[in-house]
User: Fold these one by one.
Assistant:
Number 1:
Amino acid sequence: MNILVINSGSSSLKFQVINMANEEILAKGLVERIGIEGSRLKFEPADKEKIVIDQDIPSHKEAIELVLKTLVDEKHGILSSLDEITAIGHRVLHGGEKYSESIVVDEDVKKVIRDCFVLGPLHNPANLLGIEACEELMPGKKNVAVFDTAFHQTMDPVNYMYALPYEYYEKYRVRRYGFHGTSHKYVSKRAAEILGKDKPNLIICHLGNGSSLSAVKEGKCIDTSMGLTPLEGLVMGTRCGDIDPAIIPFIGEKENLSYQDIDTMMNKKSGVLGISGVSSDFRDLETAAEEGNERARLALDMFVTRVIKYIGAYMTEFDSIDGICFTAGVGENSIEMRQQIAEGLKIFGVKIDEERNNVRGKDTIVSADDSTIKLLVVPTNEELMIAKDTVELTK
Ligand code: ADP
């Protein structure tokens, strides 16, 4: 059973074909610059040479058409016919309050994705274009929508409401939704397997360019750090995370900025990039800090401190905790960050094992035997989670 996984962005489209019999990736790739001059397909079949196809790709339909053609190409392809694809799983950013699980796409589902354009203006329209292109190009095959917000829909109002006039929730559904849900779900399931416990209590730290935490109680998300949009919470690569909201009118007035300008500043020019002035990339920052760049060191320290504070706050939402999991680019790979975060949690009796922690990108327990809470590294795999949900819903 082969599943095509599609993550359709506004001008790019990532895909994987996964053989679900052994969870092997048969091919993966990326279409870049859709609708922009210089568009291309980068195609990586598992057992053949990588190729790059430069050609005009004016729309998402043409992008998927080219991907499908390449998948069955005699020389570079990996399938003899498109019949070998059982179903398609789509990453969709926002499912609003409607979906707490993945779902087979029909007209109602498309309407909800459309209704959520206002909540995910960059992603949801592109996600829908990907779905509609697949419906057109592969009629009869089932498309499954896997929402980034779904896993967090089990939160209680006490954690998802903002202390604003209630009417904004009623009129505009202003509330916390949370994102990276597919990653948090995958990691919570994997951690349950590693810990040998059916429904453990976990704090999951998805630390990458975009970062978020979730508190997962007996398999269900009870709290998460991202909010109405992915801007809230931790300090990120280019996003500010939590700030005093009064800063927005203050800076706006001083600098004569529009809401749009401020939104761009908080999303694209802030975070560790804004503080360091060096880079949004954590490896660059670690190098700069080692070379004595004080603002790079400050940015890294602020990032770590915010993670520790959030974990501390989430601890209070449990009677007991089985594990704290690290995932995504920084969480999986930065030995130093994990060490510092563990150090900041010593009041809870958390202890990291230096030798075990000397690992990158591998499922493993990195805490010391006498740590009160286990620390785990769990590489995330959102594509596999999407494919698993797709199999589950289409079998
Ligand atoms: P995205 O949110 O774009 O999916 P990723 O989860 O891929 O992000 O994380 C990217 C971040 O992970 C980058 O800032 C990168 O520097 C960081 N990263 C990757 N490897 C390491 C490493 N060995 N040490 C520190 N940071 C790393």
Number 2:
Amino acid sequence: MSVPVVRTVAELRYAVAAWRAERLQVALVPTMGALHEGHLSLVRAALSRAERVIVTIFVNPKQFNSPADLAAYPRTEETDAAMLAGAGAHLLYAPLAGEIYPEGFSTTVSVASVSEEMEGRFRPGHFDGVATVVAKLFLQSGADCAFFGEKDFQQLQVVRRMARDLDIPVEIVACPTIRERNGLAMSSRNARLSPQEHARAPRLSEVLFEAAAKMASGADAQPVLAQARRALEDAGFGPVEYLELRSSASLAPLTRASEPARLLAAAWLGQVRLIDNVEVAENDP
Ligand code: PAF
């Protein structure tokens, strides 16, 4: 069995209209391809919620900070399509760049506040690119619900805010980060780690989980974060771009886990930039 592939908005809307005529619920799983178990977990969650699941693959040039990073991004559509067929997705929407950004395209969706720090600080313009393409995918598909991984926790908050602010009638569903057995968060970028780096990379999640446990038992964030940063540097990460305790709801900085919180980090390992985040249980004595 293969998954049908469409490349234009017109074909996508035609397929969705036929499902709507049968009163079927439609879910969307936006991706940039190079699929792994993390993406498949989103597809499975979508299948459990809606009768029809569309997966999109579009390597969005507007969210890359450097042309080299865009060029190096893996493109594996054939393998991806086979994985999606195996997972039971109903449609693959893989538009060409001109379909998403036609000649003269001039609109940017920019989400203030939740976009500005952490990833937004180190990747200027990244979230404008994400918000713009995701808004387009929502409007093109008219999906009832859309599935995003908590691995990109800040992206999730940006997408939620954007959909709410623009009154796009789509339910945003967050799915837990899928990790390798050694704890490393799954990411298409992991393929770019050397075998030695790959062996060292799980230290990122270990350090985050250790720090989160300390904060959940009441420790102040500042000394725990300083110690965690040193542990990452000792393990060969650098630069550690950010390592922060933030409110899960608003992403506002916290000095301790006085409300549901998230510990988020971005750090380089060799030539690869890794991000990860973990939940910190609320400690409000
Ligand atoms: O998380 C991603 O893969 C991308 O940022 C997304 C949401 C598909 C938008 O291009």
Number 3:
Amino acid sequence: MTGDPTGLIDSFRRAGQGQVFAFYDQLLPDARARLLSEAAEIDLGEVDRLVRTLVAGGEARAVDLEGLAPAPYEHLPSRGGDPRSWSEAKAAGEAALRAGRVAAFTVAGGQGTRLGYDGPKGTFPVTPVRHRPLFQVFAWKILAAGRRYGRPLHWFIMTSHGNHSETEAFFGENGHFGLDRARVHFFRQGRMPAVDFSGKILLQTRDSLALSPDGHGGSLRALDRSGALDLLAGEGIDTLSYFQVDNPLVRCVDPAFIGWHLVRGSEMSSKSVSKAYPEEKLGHFCIRKGNVVVIEYSDLPLGLQREKDPSTGGLRYEAGSIAIHAIDREFVRRMARGADGLPFHRADKKIATVDAAGGEVRPEKANGVKFELFVFDALPFARNPVVVETSRADDFSPVKNAEGVDSPATCRADQLRQFARWLRSAGASVPTDASGLPAASLEVSPLFGYDEDSFAESWSRLDPKPAIAEGLCLEAPTP
Ligand code: UTP
């Protein structure tokens, strides 16, 4: 920030946020410049609106559940879906991939607090034998899909201010895992200031604001702000295949899913899995006032989460969201620029700050509010949104926690089960326990096979077939 800062400081004072500059006069020039540049990022009008709507009324308001019903979805053929429609969808998705209309998009700006790993989450070693990092798994799936469809894919990766440089450096050190670096695009998401319970923007230190990433929903405006949408348009790409950085099982570009999205003329499509048990921490696909919405597990009363559907005997709200979407480029632009902005959510958190004398404060309980955007909040604004069922075993095993559910250990086991299943479907004999977990340690490079079809093709070409009993790592087939 150069020039006279008086105007900026005055605008904060007029907005009742003058405390941001409480220590300004005591700061050295560099520290002043840092504080000013962070302050210049803040949209004071937006903060004022959020304080009035989300903070002033006390605790977070309950979500509107009036007239709520489960959302319809396209069932897998194995669960009653029409096989012909699925084949047509897959053919349409494959045609789009061959025509270069699809790009992969990973949101990787999260803080990964629960995992407690030091570094961008995408650098976390996740595969069972080779311990390859999450980013490498996605990179190789994307590389292999590009080869399969004869059109190398573009890959967009949203980072945060906190992990951007480290993420870029990691790709650089690893030669972008063999991808054309001109097709790998990194951009930062936005950040939002935290406020105390009276709506005052908090300082983290005397010369910096308490800023945090604006949530995965910030991806829509960040795609626009970064110029990614124009790049997509220039390349003739109209569909983004959106997934999270913590899920190595994901099919980064799934032709059947992309096909459903295109055939239905959908602006935003979603994958769902049947909830494993009523209290599973997944959002629920629902219909509210005629629109598809995702109601988070924390917002749907337990009574509804446990309710049974008398016609099937299963859960009534069974369709769980796994944060995989196909999103239309121009829909993103409309959401980013139009009047239909995503709503912010309030999260009460412990926020490190300073006291009136500038001394460090590490609160033991929540002392303020962070604001976050969620990408699924775009669904009610999308035309023809379609929810498509997938099998969890083929698409979803996230690494969220250090231990227990959704941890590196459960994800490792799910990868092993997937490799064993692919081998068995291709005709190999693989001893497993009742849960499908193989005794042998297996790893399949995505360059050998990144889904059941591509695996089966590579496997059929192997002659002789390797032994499995002692464990097996299948790397890229030699051309
Ligand atoms: P999570 O909700 O799991 O959050 O993010 P997190 O920050 O990674 O982890 P915790 O809650 O601190 O343990 C789901 C996905 O959304 C991305 C994450 O990188 C992950 O891929 N995300 C989340 C962002 O890109 N930006 C955000 O501001 C939040």
